[in-house]
Specification:
Distance between the termini: 61 Å
Number of helices: 16
Mean pLDDT: 94
Radius of gyration: 25 Å
Low-confidence stretches: none
Strand content: 15-25%
Structural class: alpha+beta
Helix content: 25-40%
Number of strands: 22
Strand order of the largest sheet: 2-1-5-4-3-6-7
Length: 659
């Protein structure tokens, strides 16, 4: 029945159903983070737990390949009207940190489950050690808020009030949690009605056959994209600035092997499981959607007509050794997994950039900082917890245009909350919210500019959490002669005697009158800056995107006081610019860091650590870094010397049986 035309009709029905679900949730949600920022998902799920329909206009874009199978199987005796839920990252591996509450509802036809509707909302707070539940400093899952393993929340249309009472007792803003959950249930009901309409239109058996065909078609499209990429192995690594409060870098390493219509992503050599909340709970699933988000972006870039469903994941196999940052074991903290996921996407982009350099952009900012404020509203004397705004950086320079300003590609789904709404709901005063000059990497196609935000608080002990703070040391990279982008920053009371630079610290306590300024990173540049038309550079200066000084230093474009191009001086300045070298430009910070921590040195480090029991690995890493810092040690020999000293100092440390 399902030829290409009919299959596209079914695909359109599935997408329209998902879009309707998204609109229902968007219009009825309670928290600003869901109704404005749109950190939510909705989806259609087949009876085996595989996603076959998602929206593209509203919500987060991480989960088109999400599989609910393990979570669905942990709940028994589904009945019409039931809704199950979980937010436990270690139960079913659907939720990936505690604030993400996933719900799913079975859809029955003739007493048989034919599909599920599902989705998640990011709750503003789930309790735990800090407001908004998330901080890099947390070290175990128990600190990150209350967790619910997969269980029924709604029984035959009736909410389980006992479960809701347990939740509302443990979270800081219960009305927001319950309101958003009920809005999501409404969205699931919308999806159920749409599925029943599809079954009526196509017939039950044809509908079930068609859903399988949608997954198969997406798989075929993904395989077609891979078949056009040259076979080979492409290696890349990138770093998160800090692995914990110890502030050592966290490396993610990828060996991408493409053979025909299949690809293997081997993350062996990435950092061990961390004693912080940057771990990514994949459960060892070789096709877990959280590992493949970067792949979805690459596939969609190379084929914008590709169907978004679980079929996309089938040609890919991920290798994530147990006890590493991408496959931690319980009870590792995972709340800040989105920071590591941003770097994971950068690693995937870097590997594919080598495989198809003509078609992919430079690195996006890769730090989608989410700012939450917990303060007292002096007008009502009530405590307020709210997401203020995402501070998202620029997109990387594209093969055909500049990177997008302030909306960095892989985090562009996070929408701005209008300042007027934020100031109405949260007692803060915005002083600045705009783009940061000179923050995009120079290139034939400039990287997108960073976002900069500053606001003042008015109540004592106002607590700020700014999760996913990163790229304050390792820059988003440029490609094909383009330059790395500007760094991120966070400053309390900038430009005053009390100025404090916070780097990647993600929590702060502010007092009345204090100002917090947060700036994201920019996007990397693409192509030789000397090849950018001088008029484009002059236009960037006129718009405030690039300073006159940077125009001369990075682009070799000399401008008069009136902003006009001095052709003779520009020709001489461009002739003096250094010629680009290599595929990537990482900036001086990474170049300096890798002078000591060479790739061979880090490979030796991870080999030694992987041979240790999991509970020793992060400790040993920290001690080795302590003994490398400030010394002339380098390379494999330097790591071996440092490790020998650690073994001598801590005789309890097991000796790995490797050469």
């Amino acid at each position: 029945m399902f030829d290409r035309a009919n299959l596209q009709v079914l695909a359109n029905h599935a997408r329209a159903a998902a879009e309707n679900m998204a609109h229902t949730l968007h219009r009825t949600a309670h928290s600003a983070f869901v109704k404005e920022t749109q950190d939510f998902t909705v989806m259609l799920i087949d009876r085996k737990g595989r996603t076959f329909g998602v929206p593209v206009e509203l919500g987060a874009t991480w989960y088109p390949g999400l599989t609910y199978t393990r979570a669905i199987d942990m709940v028994s005796d589904y009945r019409p009207g039931d809704v199950a839920f979980t937010n436990d990252p270690y139960s079913g591996y659907v939720a990936t940190h505690a604030p993400d509450t996933h719900l799913w509802k079975p859809v029955f036809v003739d007493g048989e489950i034919v599909a599920y509707t599902g989705g998640h909302i990011h709750n503003t707070d789930m309790g735990g050690a800090v407001a908004a539940s998330l901080s890099r400093a947390l070290t175990e899952i128990h600190q990150e808020g209350i967790r619910f393993p997969p269980m029924k929340l709604v029984n035959e249309g009736v909410f389980d009030e006992q479960i809701l009472r347990i939740m509302t007792t443990n979270v800081r803003k219960p009305d927001l949690n319950v309101g958003d959950i009920k809005a999501l249930v409404g969205a699931l009901n919308t999806g159920e009605r749409k599925i029943l309409q599809m079954v009526k239109k196509f017939g039950k058996e044809a509908f079930l056959e068609g859903v399988d065909a949608l997954l198969d078609h997406a798989e075929a499209q993904a395989r077609a994209v891979l078949s056009e990429i040259p076979d080979g192995t492409y290696n890349f690594a990138d770093y998160a600035d800090e692995d914990s409060t110890e502030a050592n870098p966290c490396r993610l390493k990828l060996s991408l092997t493409i053979r025909g219509e299949e690809a293997v992503l081997d993350f062996t050599g990435s950092d061990p499981q961390l004693a912080s909340s940057l771990n990514v709970p994949s459960g060892g699933d070789p096709r877990h959607t959280i590992l493949l988000v970067g792949v979805y972006y690459v596939l969609y870039t190379l084929n914008p007509q590709i169907l978004l469903n679980t079929g996309l994941t089938r040609p890919f196999t991920c290798i994530t050794p147990e006890g590493t940052v991408l496959n931690p074991v319980y009870p590792a903290a995972v709340g800040m997994r989105s920071l590591t996921c941003a770097r994971l996407r950068s690693v995937i982009f870097g590997a594919f950039s080598q495989a198809v350099p003509a078609r992919l952009p430079a690195a996006p900012a890769g730090n989608n900082c989410i700012v939450n404020v917990m303060t007292t509203d002096e007008r009502t004397n009530r405590t307020v917890i709210a997401a203020v705004n995402p501070v998202v950086g620029g997109g990387g320079g594209m093969p055909h245009r500049d990177g997008t300003n302030g909306s960095g590609a892989d985090a562009a789904y996070l929408k701005n909350t209008p300042i007027e709404i934020t100031e109405t709901e949260t007692p803060v005063e915005f002083l600045r919210y705009g783009l940061a000059r000179d923050s995009g990497g120079a290139g034939r196609w400039r990287g997108g500019l960073a976002t900069e935000m500053a606001f003042r608080v008015f109540a004592p002990d106002s607590r700020i959490t700014a999760r996913n703070r990163d790229r304050s040391f390792f820059r988003p990279w440029g490609v094909l002669g383009g330059h790395a982008a500007g760094l991120s920053d966070m400053v309390v009371n900038p430009g005053t005697e009390g100025e404090r630079r916070l780097g990647n610290i993600d929590t702060a306590v502010l007092q009345p009158g204090d100002v917090l300024m947060i700036r994201s990173a920019g996007g990397g540049g693409r192509g030789n800056p000397a090849e950018r038309e001088a008029w484009r550079v002059a236009e960037d200066v006129a718009r405030g995107y690039v300073s006159k000084e940077a125009a001369a230093a990075e682009y070799g474009v000399v401008l008069s006081d009136a902003g006009e191009v001095d052709e003779i001086a520009t020709e001489a300045a461009r002739a003096a610019l250094p010629a680009p070298e290599g595929h990537f430009h990482f900036g001086p910070e990474r170049t300096g860091y890798e002078a000591q921590w060479t790739p061979e040195a880090y490979d030796r480090l991870t080999a030694l650590l992987s041979a240790l029991p999991i509970h020793w690995r992060f400790f040993a890493k920290t001690e080795i870094f302590r003994r490398m810092k400030g010394t002339e040690r380098t390379g494999r020999a330097g790591v071996d010397t440092a490790f020998a000293e650690v073994c001598a100092r801590f005789p309890e440390l097991p000796r790995p049986a490797i050469a």
